[in-house]
Structures are given as structure tokens and as C-alpha cells.
Design brief:
It comes from Agromyces humatus. The chain has helices spanning 53-61, 85-94, 102-105, 112-122, 129-141, 146-149, 158-170, 188-205, 216-222, 240-245, 250-257, 266-284, and strands at 9-18, 27-37, 42-46, 68-73, 76-77, 95-98, 176-180, 208-212, 225-230, 233-239. It is an alpha/beta fold.
Length: 285
């Protein structure tokens, strides 16, 4: 991991709220969140549903705009970039996103090779034979065959489709890869293969990862640092192993206790949750 003076990603005081009904108070999804990501580093975001993980990921990917705060990638403020097609392509070239459901994010009409060559041509990275050669290199990189290059998404397994999604993201040579629950829908054995692939890609290319997941075991395996989110705010952060093995915040301890394992007692988790909610209620009064 690179520890340069200036991190690749610098987020400062991000805030995002959604208006869900006329006359109702806005729902705060991201509340004063700050973080950095070094070149070649993997940062994890964990927390329960509604904690703000995916909204932060979408802000970094340019799919959502923060209401306030700043976000810089490679020194460029993402909030001040223009709204035209060229600006959108520039943002996409910096940061690519891999979603939970690759079948929904891939064009079902295109073969794997066409998917990759289209991405490269869109960003002006290759054309003609160069694009086909680049697609072949990408497929080799994600361990897919020339035979699979001729197939369409519906002809592939879930793990193969996710490899295609990763290859398409890498096709534009991004600085940051955002993965939003990218392995949660896969079988455990396939998860392991994808995680190994991501680790290999990171070591070879020094690409940075923002890894969003509710699976603490996955986050423990693939990330260097982790942010624990609750109610849109960061309640704990640090080196992944330190946070997951010696959690300081009661909510982090609750998350860890909620993971089934030997001797796991759901009634204990329910009691811990009730105690946590009561402590929050007492603190707010």
C-alpha cells in the first residue's frame, strides 16, 4: 500500500439527505462522513441496511451528489466537475463501480467481448483490433476463456458474470474500484475466487478499492482499513483487524455479536440490540 503525503481519495464532511414525502423531514443518509483512501489501499464500509454505505459508494462513483462536503480523487474535486457527457466520462474513467447483481448491470444483448470493446471505445482507449486485443487481455486477467468471450450474460454463471463486470470496470483503467456487495449473491466457493482475483488485481495494478459489505468475514479478508457506519455517521474506524478484533464502539460490538458462529445465541443478540437502543435513547435526552 502506498502511504504518500496526499491520499488518492479525500472525502471531507460528506452529507446527503433524501426528501421522501412532502412536508416530512428529510432522511439523512450520510451525516458528516470523512475518509481517505491511499493508492493501492482497500477501505471497507460496514453497517446495517440504511447505515449509508451504498450512498457513500454511489457518491464516490458519481451516481449521487453530496448536498455538502468535498470529495477529491487524484486532486480533482468531484463536485466541481461539469455536467456534460465529457465530464461524466472523465468521472467514470477515474472511478468504476461493480454492483451486487452483474446480470442487471450488463447489457444482455452484447457478448462478453462486445461489452469490453464497447467500454474501451467509449472512453477512447482502443479501437478495431486494439480493442479486441485489449478485451482478450482483460478476459485473461479475470480468468475467463476465449470461448466465454463469445457468450452473452444469460449463458454465464453468476461468478462468471461478476468477472465480466470486473473486467468491464478495469477496461477504462480506473484509479478506484467501488464494489457494492459485489460478492454477497455468490456461493461461498465463488466468493473466495472473486476475492482472490480482486487481491491479485490490487497487488498488480495498485488500484484502490472501496468495498461495501455487510459480511464482516469478507471485509476482514479483503480490506486494510474499515469504517463502521450507523445512521449515516461513522462511529468507529481503523485498521480492519484492530476494529474487528478489539471493537471500541458498542455498535461495532453488536455487529460482530450478530454474526452466527459456534455458541451463537440469537436471544443474546436481541438483548444487546435492545441495550444499545436504550443507551442511544438515554444519550439523546
Amino acid at each position: 500500500m502506498n502511504t504518500s503525503a496526499t491520499p488518492l481519495v479525500v472525502a471531507d464532511g460528506l452529507h446527503r439527505a433524501f426528501h421522501v414525502a412532502r412536508g416530512a423531514d428529510p432522511v439523512v443518509a450520510v451525516d458528516d462522513v470523512s475518509f481517505t483512501i491511499e493508492a493501492g489501499e482497500a477501505l471497507g464500509l460496514v453497517g446495517e441496511s440504511g447505515s449509508g454505505k451504498s450512498t457513500i459508494a454511489r457518491i464516490l462513483a458519481g451516481l449521487e451528489r453530496a448536498d455538502s462536503g468535498s470529495l477529491r480523487v487524484a486532486g480533482i474535486d468531484r463536485r466541481t466537475v461539469g455536467h456534460g457527457a465529457a465530464a461524466r466520462l472523465a468521472r467514470a474513467r477515474q472511478v468504476q463501480m461493480v454492483f451486487q447483481d452483474p446480470y442487471g448491470s450488463l447489457d444482455r444483448r452484447l457478448t462478453v467481448e462486445q461489452t469490453l470493446t464497447h467500454a474501451m471505445r467509449l472512453h477512447g482507449l482502443a479501437g478495431g483490433r486494439d480493442a479486441k486485443g485489449g478485451a482478450a487481455e482483460l478476459l485473461e486477467r479475470v480468468r475467463l476463456s476465449a470461448t466465454q468471450a463469445r457468450l452473452k450474460p444469460y449463458q454465464l454463471s453468476g461468478g462468471q458474470r461478476q468477472r465480466v463486470a470486473i473486467a468491464r470496470a478495469l477496461a477504462v483503467e480506473p484509479a478506484v474500484l467501488v464494489l457494492d456487495e459485489a460478492v454477497s449473491a455468490l456461493d461461498v466457493s465463488v466468493q473466495a475466487q472473486i476475492l482472490e482475483l480482486l487481491d491479485e488485481i490490487r497487488r498488480e495494478s495498485r488500484i484502490s478499492l472501496l468495498f461495501v459489505s455487510h459480511d464482516l468475514a469478507v471485509v476482514d479478508e479483503v480490506t486494510d482499513r474499515v469504517l463502521v457506519l450507523f445512521g449515516g455517521a461513522v462511529v468507529e474506524e481503523g485498521r480492519t483487524q484492530d476494529v474487528l478484533r478489539k471493537p471500541a464502539h458498542p455498535y461495532t460490538r453488536l455487529l460482530i455479536a450478530s454474526v452466527p458462529g459456534p455458541g451463537w445465541d440469537p436471544h443474546d443478540v436481541i438483548a444487546r440490540r435492545a441495550a444499545f437502543e436504550l443507551s442511544r435513547s438515554d444519550a439523546s435526552t
